[in-house]
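FORM 7B: Structural annotation worksheet

SECTION A. Query
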Amino acid sequence: MTESLDAERMACWRAYIEASQRLFTQLEDDLRADSDLTFADYHVLVLLSEAPGQRLRMGELAGRLVFSPSRLTYQISSMQKRGLVARESCPDDRRGSEAVLTAAGLLTLREAAPPHLRSVRTHLMDDLDDAEVACLTRVFERLGRRLRADRDVSSTPADK
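SECTION B. Predicted structure
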């Protein structure tokens, strides 16, 4: 019983990973066709556009992007050369710096998200076959049950 559950779980995660790879490839192709942005460029611009003052400390940006510091430095430098972002010293911490969205970056972001661009969910659902959808549905239902059970256990008062 446990072996079949483990095999099913592995099959589901494999399906999820393969679908995610297809999704991001398609999103990157759409972005490049419309705006010559990479998905990483787009993600940086979105995060900066949603941040207060359209600026984020480099450490916080790296954490949200799951980039290594050297990868983020390269990404920001590349975007800075194209005028999409600026890099400024952080007023609160002289050792740190912030990435700041420029007017050109905001305009590029708006142009990169045309109305015809499909949502991530639409891409994902279109790129999965019925077996993958069923498998992923089971994984997420189990995860939801586990999270609800964990929440219920943590919210009950401890016995004295």
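SECTION C. Observations
DSSP finds seven helices and three strands in the chain. The beta strands are 55-57, 85-90, 93-101.

SECTION D. Sign-off
Analyst initials: ____
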